[in-house]
Amino acid sequence: MDIDHWASEFDNYLLKNWVNHDNAHDIFHLRRVWRTAQTLMGASEQVNPLVVLVACYFHDVVTLPKDHPQRSQASSLSATETLRILTTHFPSLPKHYHDPIAHCIIAHSFSANVEPISLEAKIVQDADRLEALGAIGLARVFAVSGQLNRTLFDGDDPFAQNRALDDSRWALDHFQEKLLKLPETMQTPMGKLLATQNANYLVQFMAKLSAELSGNIAQFDDDIIARFSLDVN
Length: 233
Description:
The protein is mainly alpha-helical. It contains ten helices and no strands. It starts with a helix and ends in a 5-residue tail after the last helix. The relative contact order is 0.10. It holds the Pfam family HD.
């Protein structure tokens, strides 16, 4: 069975059986992570694409809200559930892939803080984290913040120049607390490059927002760009 056929099988299974209420981690997120992982894999012969594929499609099969007390355990729960699904519904998938797949799923999570050891796990982690950056990341951060009833930003000090950051209150604070730091956590050279480029997209948004809040509707705030832009080289 070729990789495209496996992808179709997993996609169909999730569409029919997966009950999910998290719009930031839906089937479209899983498909995008797989597409990004394919970009990161390139033509490498050192990577097992089937391990990466399974991990991409099932890494969020168990999702918990960001404010859930067991949030850091979600990836381990997903790994356990994935192995159950593979054993029950995809018995033809070689069982010696199960442990490598489980490691990829457990290690993908930011909150779990598990170091990815295999190249497959590094690729899956990078592909998933790239979803938090760029245009998709911008949409997701405000969607999630809306679900959690968080305010968009602190109107008196939106960029936390004179206060401590607190992304549990203000969505915009999440950019500085986590998102702009993601490029330095990337595991692959291509992942780091893409993350840096897409983090700078968020900086452009911040610069536009800052200008608009100052009444400069058609401008960008150069000070914000200078303060937060990341070096692509």
